[in-house]
Amino acid sequence: MYIERLELKDFRNYESIELDFSSKINVFIGENAQGKTNLMESLYVLSMAKSHRTSNDKELIRWEADYGKIRGAIQKKYGHLPLELTLSKKGKKAKVNHLEQKKLSNYIGQLNVVMFAPEDLYLVKGSPQVRRRFLDMEIGQISPVYLHDLLQFQKILKQRNHILKQNQGKPFLKDVMYDVYTEQYIDAAVKVIQKRFQFMDLLQKWAEPIHFGISRGLEKLTVSYNSTSGIKADWTENEMKEHLEKKITDNQKRELDRGVTLTGPHRDDLQFFVNDYDVQIYGSQGQQRTTALSLKLAEIELIKQEVGEAPVLLLDDVLSELDDYRQSHLLNTIQGDVQTFVTTTSVEGIAHDTIQHAKMFHVEQGAVID
Question: Which one, out of 200, 266, 269, 365, has a CA that is 20 to 30 A from the CA of 358?
Fold first, then answer.
């Protein structure tokens, strides 16, 4: 799949703009704070209906405008697909092929993207929240069911936490609604955990050989989903539920003391091992960056396998963060069927044919010249 055309109205610092893209490589060149990353962000929002930079949609609307709009003309293997997303202070409206979607979960997944930005280099050594977000965003692209299950889980978690907060400090809790929410919570949590385990198996399948290649055959990467409750991937659904129920029962006093739910997928994490050593603790900066790069390249292959066509790759100011070897490996990998967007202040330091034959867009103070 690839993006043929992008139209923005009152998005970030763009009042109105229309751009036609190459199906191969597109490069946004310009100094910092001119609007390159805003263009990249608009492509991400068009795909995911949310930003990778902010959780506040109001920040995406141009100053003093009532609403912002992103339109994209997408070419997929089965034909042309128009997408449209309108952002206002009241919420979002999403259209697929000019038809408004009642649920955003029906919109997400129409356009698949893989974003690689400097902050993704900290995927390994960053907080567990960063890695959980990585999991949720990527699974959500290939599984609308997961998005629905995750939203249900988050809703029930909020309700359960509300009851715990109301009863914080009590020695024990007898409340019918607490029992109802706990039962619902266990069901919802297990659905999320099961899907994450399945995704991790797929990610491992692709990331291991990619990392082996980038490390010149010296390193074996293992990706592991670390369930805080101790649930194992090979357990049955009933075994998972029984284990989680016991954990919650054992933790009830601690939860009442804290006023929050302490066990579940909202506290789980990913672990990365290179040659059986935890990369987050013992890995060099180079190993951590190679691990992050391997995960992003694995995402491309995973989506390609699950969806049946390659996603769009967004490289936001990341090439300058990679050394020549990793840079070349990345650019060699994307040659061919992966439409790629790159932001950079200069292409002088990128000695690769892929970039030299790209379509160039010069960005200056919210204006784009191609």
Answer: 365
